[in-house]
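re: ur question from yesterday

yeah so i grabbed the chain u mentioned. its 558 aa long if i counted rite. heres the sequnce exactly as i have it in my notes:
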Amino acid sequence: MFSLMKKLNKNKILFITLLLVNFLVFSYISANYNSARSPDFMYYTDYISYFFNSLNLTGREQGLIYFFLVSLTIKFFDIDFGASSYELSFSNSIIITNYLLFSIGLIGLFKLLKNRKFSSKNILFSFLVVSLFPQSINMILTMKPEIIAFSTLPWSIFLILKYLENSEIKYLYIALFPNLILLTTKATIIGSVGLIYLFILLQNLDKFKNINFYKFLTISLMLITLLFYENAIANGKNILEHTNTKPDYQDKAQLAFLFDLNLRELITNPFRHNHANSLLGILMLDTFGDYFQNYALHDNSLFAFSRKNIPRIFVISHWTQFISIILTTSYYIATIYYFRKNRINNIFYVLHFFGIIILLLQAFGFPQVNFNANMADTFKTHYYSFLLVISFTFLITSLVSQFPKIKLGLLFLAIFTFFNLYGLNKIEYKNYLQLISLRSNISATCSFNSIFLDDLDSESCNSAVIKICKTTPHITNTNFLIQKELSNLYLNNYYPSQVLSKENTKVVPRTVDECIKYVKKGYRYLTYLQNPIRVPIVNLIFYILSIASLGYAFFIKE
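ran it thru and got these structure tokens back, copy pasting raw so excuse formatting
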């Protein structure tokens, strides 16, 4: 009894620590990064315009539900914003939505790992490390559907495994709606998840040769058609209709792309597009780093501002990239080791390979040409980040189960990697704190940040006056800062061209004082985000049923 209580207390402490770490990470990344400048945001914002009735068609080809959830968050959480704070309001909504989805995915991953006989203590510890994993952070920062794939795939696999263990068709029906969402999200997600399911099917073929499974498959195909239809009507194209007509993306990868690797160049010149001829080089620099400079090294984020570099030793001067090379190499060696050693769980250690296979097919011209040989950005790790996070979690859980004494070392390594990659070690810390104070005025964690920032008054948090009437060029554009042009570090600018509205009345204040006067009377920045939100009925019903299914699955006992 005493040992059980001790174990429960340890799990409680780990769980509380996990919540605290995720909140601190959420606070830090939301203040430092503008998700409205994340990869391909300018394309996917068409979905937001569609849901707020500004566009009749998205013109894109991806599933609706993820972008609807982001739109819903915008509608409920970001009421007040002006021309300058507009982007950061978007960013807040994206990161809030993604963290909620990330949490759902972690709960599913907990159930999956428990099913594979790992202890709660080791699972919760691995979640601490995974919460600092670059692929987790980057997935949360980006308005792309990979995060909703992460939120549903662990649950789906868990329920499929329950079916294989018990031969009870009910588990597949519980997994039905999460899978419908998962398999209508994005072509690369459908491809990689389809390969994973094919692998499971071939390994357990006898379990699927029965009339109940065929009935389930028929019902699934009928229901998924409804989702495909609603998505196609809204998009103006189907989910597989991704044709890139840009002249730069009409290449096909050469076979040498799979094997080429220049180790000296990798260490001395580890920068974007210099390794476009090497799949291995891109993997090593992007898995635990930011080779394409979209996140930690993005020149428009505060992560990159005034970062302190580790001194050069021999030929190694780019330590952030070198650490990524070492960690990625170790990661792939370890996954292959556990794939061969742990036959029961082998698929979970190599899930990311299914994502890479789909990207390779695309690079070699199947189903259509969509590859730029000068950049090879088809192989951004973000495209299979949801698989990397699951595989990485299985690896960390396996390591700490087999070697409990390495826990402290792994946690230290995760914290060090996070600090180094996302630039917590600053040279000009005073200016950085001023900048964070500016950005925090519009951050979702403004009140919390004000405890630690002298320049940030908690009373100014969520102030419509500040969000609409006061600005500085550094609120959304930090390129000035990277060049050390540290001027206008206070909210003392104003955009006199923004239109404010109240009911049917529109005004254009010419000064800060005039703007404040109208805001206090209830006027707000005029934008299409004030429009009623459009609801994708089929997607929403299926997603609600999906969440209900996950709630039911949570209480399935092991």
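noticed a couple things. The CA atoms of residues 470 and 494 lie 6 Å apart. also The first helix runs from residue 2 to 32.
anyway ttyl
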